[in-house]
Design a protein that fits this description.
single chain; TIM Barrel; 8 helices; 8 strands; 33% helix; binds D-xylitol-5-phosphate; binds zinc ion
């Protein structure tokens, strides 16, 4: 696991060319240790993306930290497959319930454990599990699609999570996902997020590697 206090940009391949994912990874591999992989099941969210076979193929091209965001109704059926594919960490949404069992299943598999909060889900739903997870992901858009606008209303929740993590001196990465760009990364960092998922801002940029460096610099300054 990457140290919880480190500031990193996690490029999301959702906005990359799906016909050329290995090449997309190469564009950012030199500037960040972290890669965000968006898995959508067409049920929890109204979109479909990739699953374990694609992740296994990407693993052959990359040693980056694979942070798999599971936008799925039944992740328990596939956790073993994600582990076998080379996932380092999986994050499951608290909205689907069975959080206790899912955390235990991920631990058994020696997967990093992440929980995700949708924009309208309060921090209190994740709080009881804070001492048992490696990462808390606060969504700053409703999941399903890249390129949406940042929802500022989630910032107090980010600050609340930051305070709780610090107060208990926990090693939990606080990640934010959705609508991150050079402006929104500033308020997200100031509120206490430490890992910034960015899809559109990175892969729609003429120079994705440069975009990662600029976003990280802005986050560091605002911290
Ligand atoms: C949204 C995904 C995000 C998305 C972020 O459902 O979870 O990871 O790719 O993309 P941008 O940065 O374009 O909002
Ligand atoms: Zn995501």
């Amino acid at each position: 696991m990457i140290p919880a206090g480190d500031i990193h940009v996690a490029p999301s391949l959702l906005s990359a060319d799906f016909g050329n994912l290995a090449a997309a990874i190469e564009l950012i591999a030199g500037v960040t240790p972290w890669l965000h992989l968006d898995v959508m099941d067409g049920h929890f969210v109204p979109n479909l993306t990739i699953g374990p076979p694609v992740i296994a193929s990407l693993r052959k091209h990359s040693k980056l930290f694979f942070d798999c965001h599971l936008m799925m109704t039944n992740p328990e059926k596939y956790l073993e497959a994600f582990k076998a594919a080379g996932a380092d960490l999986c994050s499951v949404h608290v909205e689907i319930g069975q959080t206790e069992e899912l955390i235990e299943a991920m631990r058994q598999l020696d997967l990093g454990v992440g929980l995700v909060l949708n924009p309208d889900t309060p921090f209190s739903v994740a709080e009881p599990f804070l001492d048992r997870i490696d990462l808390l992901l606060v969504m700053s858009v409703f999941p399903g699609f890249g390129g949406q606008s940042f929802i500022e209303d989630v910032l107090p929740k980010v600050a609340e999570a930051r305070s709780a993590i610090d107060a208990a001196n926990l090693d939990v990465v606080l990640e934010i996902d959705g609508g991150i760009d050079l402006e929104t990364v500033v308020s997200a960092s100031a509120s206490g997020a430490r890992v910034f998922v960015a899809g559109n801002a990175v892969f729609s940029h003429a120079d994705p590697g440069r975009s990662v460096l600029e976003l990280r610099e802005a986050a560091l300054l605002a911290r």
